[in-house]
C-alpha cells in the first residue's frame, strides 16, 4: 500500500478534495486494519509432503520441498494449469504414495522412506494429454486427518506483496467462462470491452497503452497488466483477488455439478432401473423398430449411441447392419457391463481400432465418459457420424437435461444431413378431474373417512409435480400441444420456454365421477403433461414410428407428470345454455368456466439436471368474463 498524507500547503481549501482525501484515508486505515488482522493469524503446523518436517506457512513448506525434495509445487500447478481441486488431489495423491514408500512420479517402490528420499529426482515434463494419476476422485478425501496444508496451499495465491504470474491462455479461459471478459474492475474503476487483442498488446509492448480511465497515465500504467521477463502476464493484487473470487465461485459451482453428475450416472449403475427400461415395451418397440426396419438408414452406417446404458440400442444398430457403433456411457460400471455384453454377443470391436487386420469382426466400441469429454477418451473425427441415437428423455421430457448432451454430440460429430433418432419431440397437456388426485382413496379407507390426509397430500402436490399414471376416464379436457421440438435444428436454449394454450372440455366428457350430473359441471383439478417422440419419415423412410407416453397409449416407465391446482376450477360444456350470475367468480360453481387458458413455463433449474415449472391459469366463462388464479411454481 502507498501511504498518503494531506498537505496543509497544497493550496486553497476545496471541499471536494477534502472529502476525497478523507475517504481515501479511511479506506487506507480500514485496509491496514484488515492486513494487520491477517498478519496476526498463524497457520497451524504444516507437515512436509515427503518427510516429517513441519512449517508455519505453506510458502516455507513448498520452498523446503523444492530445495530438499526436488518438488516445485507452484511450478507444477502453473505448468499443468491445475485448479484448486486438482491441486487438492495432487497433495493427497503424493501423501498416499509416500506412505507406501513409492515414488509419486515414476512409481518405484522402496523399502523405507530414507531410500525413497534418496531417490527423489527432478520432475519430468508432464504431457498435458491424457489423465494424470491423481485425477481419481478418491483423492478428494484427505489422506491425513486434519491436514492443515489442504486449507493453506491456496493462500499462496492471495499474497499482496508480489504480483502473481498466470498463464495467459488460462486467464482468458477463466475470464471467458465466468463472463468477466466484458467487464473487469481495476482499482474500483470500470474497464469494459477488454478483448484478447488487448492482452496481445500487453504481451508485445510490456504495458497496455490503451485509454486511461481516470486520465492519469502513471496511475493507469500501474493498474493495467504488465509483462515480466518470462513472458507471463503479471496481475496487480486487487485484480488477482477479484479473479480468484470469480474462479472460486466457478469452482464451487463446477464441484456441485460434478457431484450431481456422479449421483446421476451412479443411479444408472443400478440394475433395477435398467430392468424397468428394458421391460418398457413401448420404449423398446419404438427404438427397435426404428433401427431394424429402416435398412436404407442403417446399412453400413456409422452410429453413435449417447448414454448407452446396457448397450441395447448399440446392439440393435449392429444387428441392423451398422459398420461401426460408438457407444458412449458415463457410468463406469455400466460402460464395463456394456463392453462385456457386446463381447458376449460377438459384437465388440477389439484390437487395433484403426487396423482391420488386427481388429475383430465386431463393430461396437464402448467409451466410458460423458459425451462432452469424448475426445479425451477416444478420437472421433468431427462430423463423421451417420446416425445419432439416444434415449435421452426424462420425466416431463426435459427432466435430467440429457438433451443438451445429445445436441452437443449432434453439433460435433453428426454429418451434415445425418440422422438423429428420435428427430422430434412434443409435450402435450390436458385437464384432469378429481379421480386424478388421491382424494377418492382417502375419502373411503375401508369405510373410514380420512380426507384430512388427502387434503394435505393434495396441498403438497400443488408445489411438487407428481409422476404417476392418469387413467383416461379422469381426463376431462381435450389435449393441447404445449411445445414441439425439432432435434435436427434446435439449440439448448430452446429447452427453456413459455407456452400458452387453451383447455376445453371434451365434447363427450367421460369423467363421470368428476361431474355433477344435474348441472353438468365438471371440476378440473390440474393439468397432466406427457410427451411423444417421433422417428419420422424424414430419416425412417421404410417405417416411421412414434413413442408416446400419453394416458391414451400403453403405459411406459415415464408415466405422466401431474401439476395440481391450488383450487379446482369448475367447468361447463360450451353447449350449455345455463345462465349464471355475473357477480360470481368465473371458475366457481356459481359461474363455471367454458375454457381454461394456461401459460406454462419450463426452465432448467439452478439445481443441475432439474427443471422448474411455473403455471398461470385464467378461467374464461361463456360470455367472455375472466378470472385469473395465483401463479404456481413447481420444482421437479
Automatic annotation (TrEMBL):
<protein>
    <submittedName>
        <fullName>Protein arginine N-methyltransferase 3 protein</fullName>
    </submittedName>
</protein>
